[in-house]
Structure formats: C-alpha cells, structure tokens
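Progress against Task 2.4 (sequence-to-structure conversion) is shown through the following example record, which the project officer requested during the mid-term review.
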Amino acid sequence: MRIAIALLSASLAWGQLSSIPTVTSASDLSAGTLPAARLPAHTGDVTSPAGSAVTTVAFVGGATAAAVATASTAAPVVGSVSVTGQTTALGATTFYTSTVAGTYRMCVAAWLTTTGTGGNMGIYSLADSGNGLTPAASILGNNVNMASITGNSGGCVVLRLGTAKNLQYQTVFNAVTGSPVYNLDVTVEKLK
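Structure tokens generated for the chain above:
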C-alpha cells in the first residue's frame, strides 16, 4: 500500500496526471462546471454549436438583436417649448408643424412661481386635423389653481396629424385675480 501511494505521489510530482480519471459524461458531475466541450447545441432565438460556450442571440421579442441594441426605448421628441415668467393667458400658439403624417403625443406641464388671489387656468391643445385648427378632445391635466403655490397641472394627449399640420397650445384664465406668474413646458413626441 505504501508503495502504491509513493508511486502516485511521484506521478503527481512529475506532472503525469494520466492516472487521474477525467469526466467523460455529464452524469459523472455531482458539482462544479460542465466543460464547454460537453455542452449541447442550442437552436432557436439563441444559438450555439455543440461543444461551445459561445451563444448568438438572433431575435429578442420578434425583433433582430441588432435592431434591439440600437433602438431607443423613448419616442423621439420632435418639438418643445418652455415659457417662463408668464403673467397672462396665452392665445393659440403654434410650436410644431408635422413633417410627416403620423401619431403624436403632446405633453404639457405648468406650475406657478407666484400665486394670484383666485381663479384657475386651463391648458388646451389644438391640432390641425386637415379641416383647420380644432380643439383636441381633452384638456391637458386639471386646471391650475392660481391662488395656490402648489397649483400645477400636467398631462398628455395623443393626436393624429397629417403632413405639414400645425400643433398648438393655449392657456385660458377663468376668473383669475391678483398677479399670478406661471411657467409652461410643452413637448411633442412622434409615436408612429
């Protein structure tokens, strides 16, 4: 027995590991890492050849991996305006003219920097649907309470515009008293 241990020690010392068993099957593994040479081939959206740990992603959610890698998750902002220090209602103001027909999202945020003593302000979008400018179906957000420094409003509306059609915003004062001052941010994104 001592001779066998001495021979095995001598083999290990000389770097001759041929006497140590190697993994020949995945069923021989009870723990550890499966050698890459033993990996199976993968097919489908993620592929790899047999015996390789390198995978290739072909599709993600039906789109090519290359398209997903370069795609932006946000709709592109195609127009915006910021109005600061405003003390009166704003009439219909064009801030974007479409270059292509499509679906757009217009978002507005308004907030007071100085309160008045009463009343409120409504915010409206107007879009040229092809028959001239008409008010959009919805008011953007709630009316701004002009007597409250925390009064603010915001919201979005989705609109369909033709080519070369105007998009406008408008604020309307309702029984506003005092001297309120407000800011307004308006953006439009091209959705489709």
